[in-house]
Design brief:
single chain, 370 residues, alpha/beta, Rossmann fold, 2 domains, 8-stranded mixed sheet, 6-stranded parallel sheet, 14 helices
Length: 370
């Protein structure tokens, strides 16, 4: 029996080429829905240089005017401009478009729109939480915002059919900070970044928004301490902490800051495939999508041993360290360099194929939507 074809509305203020880890996740999910025969309309933020509407991989992408100024980061007042203009857009859009379900990414801010659509048009919704939308996960940026939106968070979560999270860690945090709702853990996947024919080199790669909680400074200090002359460390990304990191690097020519690289483009894919080791020593991760991307290319992993990192990175693919102990970080980097990298890299690729391919993950989402 053929499954029902769904008309899906997707809300996410961050959608490629804007945003961090949650952005490509929502794109891959939307693309997966289309591959299974469903229709998907995405309402997201616009920014200078982007089109108001485009169709990509079968996804209808609508971008509403916003105050956003940077691809890699979005401030609360910029999120507010998205909510205001997306609501205005949807008031007209919903007169000529009907949907079976709304898949919203982020409880805050996007869940505000999902709740409004349910009240105004009776459109049910599921929410995928990604981390910064959950109180307690990202206090360095959103502590005050979460205090002000506490009651709204409860209403949004209470109105959702299901809340999905990429890790048990984040699910437990929602239960602790917001309430005990219908929560299902569905890991984020990653597209397969493996490119045949690219030879591995003595490269350690680390990528993400350059923020203190991402731990780039810890990796740079360890790299400098060991004095690895035949290895290079690539720091991929941009953010407010970049100038501090460049000072910590202390003009080490083997530490390269690439700036922001689009993870869909050849330059990013090539560097990831060349790298033997991928490292991110973050103090908090909802799952660690960059780890999954790296595992798809067969990188051994050096990770912090906290939150959801230890759910994603197992000991057969790399080394986990206590980031509160700089000596342990240095030793962890030494250990992974001394390890049989070929075995770790082989295991890493296998773990990706067994657990994080989007084909199976999308089917889990469709079961929830239907």
């Amino acid at each position: 029996m053929k499954s029902k074809t769904l008309r899906i509305l997707m809300l996410n203020y961050e959608f490629p080429p804007l945003g961090g880890g949650a952005s490509p996740v929502s794109y891959e999910i939307a693309k997966g829905y289309v591959k299974l025969g469903h229709s998907v309309d995405v309402i997201t933020m616009n920014m200078k240089g982007l089109k108001e509407f485009e169709k990509k991989d079968g996804i209808n992408i609508y971008r509403v005017p916003c105050w956003r100024t940077k691809k890699e980061i979005c401030h609360p007042w910029e999120q507010y401009s998205y909510l205001r203009n997306a609501k205005k857009f949807l008031k007209t859009h919903m007169k000529t478009h009907t949907y079976d379900i709304n898949h919203t990414h982020f409880i805050i801010p996007t869940g505000v729109l999902a709740l409004w659509l349910k009240k105004k048009f009776g459109l049910g919704y599921i929410i995928t939480a990604h981390g910064s939308d959950v109180p307690g996960y990202n206090p360095d940026r959103f502590k005050l915002l979460h205090k002000l939106t506490g009651p709204t968070l409860k209403k949004i979560c209470g109105g959702a059919r299901v809340i999905t999270t990429p890790s048990k860690y984040l699910a437990d945090l929602i239960k602790e900070k917001i309430g005990n709702y219908n929560i299902k853990v569905i890991p984020n996947g990653s597209r397969d970044y493996f490119v045949k024919g690219i030879k591995k080199e003595n490269i350690i790669m680390s990528s993400g928004r350059l923020l203190p909680r991402k731990g780039f400074h810890l990796l740079i200090k360890a790299f400098n301490e060991i004095k690895l002359k035949d290895w290079k460390l690539y720091i991929v990304g941009d953010g407010p902490f970049r100038s501090d990191l460049e000072k910590i690097a202390n003009k080490n020519n083997n530490i390269i800051f690439t700036g922001w690289l689009d993870n869909t483009k050849k330059e990013y894919k090539t560097l990831l495939n060349k790298s033997k080791i991928f490292s991110l020593l973050s103090s908090r991760e909802t799952q660690g999508i960059v780890f999954i991307e790296a595992m798809s290319t067969g990188c051994a992993i050096l990770s912090s041993n906290i939150t959801a990192c230890k759910e994603t990175v197992t000991k057969d693919v790399g080394v986990l360290v206590n980031i509160a102990n700089e000596k342990e970080i240095i030793q962890g980097l030494k250990d992974i360099l001394k390890a049989k990298l070929s075995t770790l890299m082989k295991n890493s690729r296998k773990r990706y194929k067994d657990n994080y391919r989007y084909e199976n993950i999308i089917k889990e989402y469709v079961r929830i939507l239907g």
